[in-house]
Structures are given as structure tokens and as C-alpha cells.
Design goal:
Length: 120
């Protein structure tokens, strides 16, 4: 008499199951904070400066995307200097917006960096 055998799981199902298991293990793993070389901690002033710089760069990147939709070919007659000038202008706009209150990103980044540093 023949005994029925179960077909092995299809490879895609097995891969999906193992991927989900990996995600579950990753989520349940204890989180470690950030650590600097020499196991030192950054000062609050250094973290605040870094968070503000991050916000400046983020805003500048948003400005870059925004300005890419505007035709500026007539501003410097399409010269090579136009791209350099436009990039510098976007960076300065980012700094100005961040200095005048920003978007609140620097505060959030600072909080997260301080929390991560305390976990170590």
C-alpha cells in the first residue's frame, strides 16, 4: 500500500516564512544606543549643533526639489555657474529657515540622539 507524502513547501512560502521570522527576531532584539569612539558621550551642545545642521541640510534638500520645478534658465543665461549658485542659494535658504524656527526637525533629532546615547 502506498503512503501519502506531503509535498514540501514551495520555496517562495519557505522564504517568506523565514523572512517574517527574521523580522520578528530583529524587532524583539534589545536596542543599543549610539556610542562614540572611546565609549565617550557627546555633549548636549554638540548634539544640538548636529541636529540643527541636519535640519538645515534637510530643508536645503527640500528647497532643491522645489526649485527643480522652476525654470531658472534666464537668471544667469544658462551658464555653468548657475548650478553652483543655485546650490549655494538653496543651502543658505535652508540655514535661514532653520535659524528662524525651522520645521521642528532639529528638536526631534536632538531628543532621539540623547535617548540613544543614554541606552548605551
Amino acid at each position: 500500500m502506498l503512503t501519502p507524502t506531503l509535498a514540501p513547501n514551495p520555496p517562495s512560502q519557505t522564504k517568506t516564512d523565514s523572512d517574517m521570522l527574521h523580522v520578528r527576531e530583529t524587532v524583539n532584539r534589545p536596542v543599543k544606543g549610539i556610542a562614540l569612539r572611546g565609549n565617550t558621550k557627546a555633549s548636549e551642545a554638540k548634539i544640538e549643533a548636529t541636529a540643527k545642521e541636519f535640519e538645515e541640510q534637510f530643508i536645503a534638500q527640500m528647497m532643491s526639489t522645489m526649485f527643480s520645478t522652476v525654470d531658472t534658465s534666464e537668471s544667469l543665461a544658462g551658464s555653468d555657474a548657475e548650478e553652483v549658485y543655485q546650490s549655494m542659494l538653496e543651502n543658505e535658504y535652508g540655514k535661514i529657515v532653520a535659524r528662524s524656527g525651522g520645521l521642528g526637525i532639529a528638536d526631534q533629532v536632538k531628543q532621539i540622539m540623547l535617548q540613544q546615547q543614554e541606552l548605551e
